[in-house]
Design brief:
466 residues; single chain; 15 helices; disordered N terminus
Length: 466
């Protein structure tokens, strides 16, 4: 094992080679999240109450295994680095589980269908968490300066949006018209195999080219319980995490419900989701360039707050759309707000990670990001409860029993719930304080140091709300 300070510094990883990994990690999980309700509830007839129960259980399990996966990554010491081995193992496992997820036999009913859905949904999310905890931990390590980090993050979010065009906007066309029909499942299985092969190649290419910093692998390996206690005692973990969760849960609702919004609220074939999703994503791609420049001029915190407000307004506009044209017009605003959050949210989190490393002398980005992922796990709970609420308030229980007004039901699911969440987030963001940018040298201790006693955060090192 290379000791700290003895290995030569690695060459710089080109931003595009790191960023392209987001393309590979995004395709599988977004196909899963974007199509699971359509596939299991509307086509296979899974009851929404069973769906809601499974999503709550899956979110609890995922919240527990995420910190463990991140901690194991932080403690890993190999000649290939800390993060790369996990990426190379997690990629084929996620692909295999995704294909199985969309290979549920059409004959499955009742408890058999529930079990198939539960097992593979939980496994897919677990391997996705493994990938993203390690991939996300590389961002502050490979690019210590916020300007470089903003460029790399902008590029990777651009690759994510390209992946979303494929995994969300193109998927309805492939699954219902090219490889299958509106009422069959064969198209989903074929599409999952194709997407899985693409994702595997891209993730492996990225992992093999990432040049981790040996100095980040200190001799002293972080211990789980003290690390967890230190993180949960950090007030910024809660303020930034809960505020970011308002955005994450809102977008999870949108991604999971867009196809049924098109079918029921707009009264159009599911394939038309291609146009709505496509324009939102294309606007987001173009918006990343603008928002990245705003970050360079005004800073990540100011830009983050503005993006939150734009996103909240966009959901109000989407509620009043009556046809594809007006939905696309509202979608332009959704794309603008979404791209602003993509450009800034990870930068806010990265500042917290830098401050933690400088304060405690240990680089435990994997555990910290996984702890932040706890708030992301709320996505499953909230989307499950939100879908269950459609049965309570509107009578939508499944595709076989859609109730009297499924159109209004999915307007509430896709517009009202996200608006409430992002409005709360926009207000909270005005009150959040984050650390100032940490100098790169301060984030690279050559040796582990004794952490200072727990106490209040140094006020001089915090960017206050303005």
């Amino acid at each position: 094992m290379s000791q700290p300070g003895t290995a030569s510094a690695p060459g710089r990883t080109p931003a595009w080679r790191y960023a392209i990994g987001m393309f590979g990690t995004s395709i599988p999980i977004n196909m899963i999240k974007g199509s699971m309700i359509l596939f299991y509830v509307d086509i296979l007839g899974l009851d929404v109450r069973a769906y809601g129960v499974v999503m709550v259980i899956y979110a609890v399990i995922d919240a527990l295994d995420n910190p463990l996966l991140g901690h194991l990554s932080d403690r890993t010491r190999t000649r290939f680095g800390r993060r790369r081995p996990w990426l190379l193992v997690g990629a084929p496992m996620l692909v295999a589980c995704m294909i199985a997820f969309f290979s549920a036999p059409a004959s499955l009913r009742g408890i058999g269908l529930v079990l198939w859905f539960a097992v593979f949904a939980i496994l897919c999310e677990a391997f996705d968490s493994m990938l993203n905890a390690n991939y996300g931990a590389l961002l502050p390590e490979l690019y210590p300066r916020e300007r470089d980090r903003a460029v790399a993050n902008g590029l990777r979010q651009g690759f994510q949006l390209v992946a979303l065009v494929i995994s969300l906007a193109v998927t309805p066309l492939l699954t219902t018209q090219v490889f299958g029909t509106e009422e069959s499942t064969q198209g989903f299985q074929t599409t999952a195999i194709i997407y899985g092969a693409i994702a595997l190649v891209v993730i492996v290419f990225m992992a093999l080219s990432a040049r981790e910093r040996p100095r980040y692998s200190t001799r002293e390996r972080p211990r789980l319980l003290p690390s967890v206690l230190s993180i949960v005692r950090n007030p910024m973990f809660w303020t930034v995490g809960l505020t970011g969760a308002c955005y994450g849960v809102a977008m999870a609702l949108v991604l999971s419900g867009i196809q049924l919004y098109v079918r029921y609220s707009l009264g159009l074939p599911v394939g038309n989701a291609l146009y709505l999703q496509g324009i939102v994503i294309l606007v987001s791609v173009a918006g990343l360039v603008v928002w990245t420049r705003v970050v360079a001029r005004r800073g990540a915190l100011w830009t983050w707050r503005l993006a939150f407000a734009v996103l909240a307004v966009s959901f109000a506009a989407l509620f009043f759309a009556t046809d594809l044209l007006t939905a696309i017009a509202a979608g332009v605003l959704v794309g603008a707000g979404w791209s602003g959050m993509l450009a800034t949210n990870d930068l806010i989190v990265a500042r917290v990670l830098d401050a933690d490393a400088a304060r405690n002398g240990e680089h435990r980005e994997g555990l910290f990001l996984s702890a932040f992922g706890f708030f992301g796990r709320l996505n499953g709970i909230v989307t499950g409860l939100a879908l269950t609420s459609l049965g309570v308030f509107f009578g939508y229980n499944s595709g076989d029993d859609p109730g009297a007004d499924p159109g209004l039901a999915f307007r509430v699911y896709l517009c009202v719930y996200p608006f409430v969440l992002t409005a709360i987030g926009a207000i909270a963001a005005r009150l959040v304080s984050v650390p100032v940018e940490t100098p790169p040298t301060a984030a690279e201790p050559a040796e582990p140091v004794e952490p200072p006693p727990a106490g209040p955060v140094d006020e001089s090192a915090v960017e206050r709300p303005r």
